């Protein structure tokens, strides 16, 4: 009989072809015009899970985009809940892509497409690992539930509601998420922390319409400039967030963790060069890894104001807008941070404009115990799949639902991602290393076995 690993090796081409079909569906969750594409991606995945041999796979409707739920409870032993997302970020700016974002293409051992690494590629390897077990041994090593949502990239709250309302359906012993990068190419990693987030929007309004900047400039406040003043006041010269109370609940990094971060093979200059920046800057007194993984920050995500076309136009804009997100760490409370942000912005607002602050979404930071048996099982699986034991890392990105799994469902969460930091997630030319894709397939197959053997809760 073929082993699951032999099955996967023999079916490399088919597995990749299936993923490419999945990637062709432009499931951009933030774009209302793509609603049907998002649904088509859910259907595609739902069918793929049935074809993989899971006895139950269905589309769960929500007020927003649907959730795909599948399960196979025929095995003895503990239950693993696999979570991922099938929605993707917008492809803009599309002119910067080497090949079209929804026409997947392999170049130099990398698969290029929107969603290749975040997160369709990583969802796909779970589907195919399950298929490998079911098509060879006829059974899975443990019970498996699969939850894949379509609103991760928009901070949607429908999945949280689903988790709370369907506790029985989602009963499990651990959660496995593959939606994060490894520390570096060729360095298998287990992630035990993620930052939280508060996503805000600031609008500044002046006159009822744009004005001739000659006729009116000097007589009224300029909303674009007022917004710049506000944004400039949100950080100080030492790159600290200048919002009173912002750091009050920040849990300091322990000496042990600082040592562990410092022991990782991180080359700050190579990192700087890879990013193409003249210098790395950030909060004083912290290393780059500390800044990104374990310190909060505030970042302007987008700015809109006035005339930005070719040439010139003398205009005093009627309004200006900024999207600002804050990455949070334990034990910051995102709703409190959103309130503090709001007060600070209103306090910084110069005379002559009206300022409006809106909260889009938010979530808490995630931090888990690295000694849990499920994480140890993951470490063994990574070692078998990639040939070396994983390094323990935190990440700066956010998966808000990881906190819900941990705190609402009281489940251990294993973050075992197969991306790499240089794969352009959310950016043009997003790609996925095929070597990692195959390594990830092997690792996930081994994990099912290791998890069954470590048997938490069985
Ligand atoms: N896969 C990422 C999360 C991630 C990124 C984890 C980098 C670890 C490292 C996820 O799809 C994502 O982009 N999340 C958003 C969440 C937000 C919209 C609430 C993020 O981090 O910006
Ligand atoms: Mn993701
Ligand atoms: Mn993402």
Summarize the structure in words.
With 458 residues, the chain is an alpha+beta fold. It folds into two domains: 4-194 and 366-454, Zn peptidases (Aminopeptidase, 3-Layer(aba) Sandwich), CATH 3.40.630; 196-250 and 296-363, Alpha-Beta Plaits. Helices cover 34% and strands 21% of the residues. It is built from 14 helices and 18 strands. It has helices at 4-10, 12-23, 35-52, 120-136, 158-165, 213-216, 223-232, 255-262, 268-275, 288-294, 334-348, 373-386, 400-407, 434-454, and strands spanning 56-60, 67-72, 79-85, 105-107, 110-112, 143-149, 174-177, 189-194, 196-205, 211-212, 297-305, 315-316, 319-328, 354-363, 366-367, 391-394, 413-415, 431-433. The strands form five sheets. It has a six-stranded mixed sheet, sandwiched between helices. Strands 11-13-9-14 form a four-stranded antiparallel sheet. A three-stranded antiparallel sheet has the order 4-5-18. Helix 1 packs across helix 4 (120-136), helix 3 (35-52) packs parallel to helix 4 (120-136) and helix 4 (120-136) packs across helix 14 (434-454). The two termini are 28 Å apart. The model has no long low-confidence stretch (mean pLDDT 97). It binds ligand BES and manganese (II) ion (2 copies). The site of one manganese (II) ion (MN) has 5 residues, from loops.
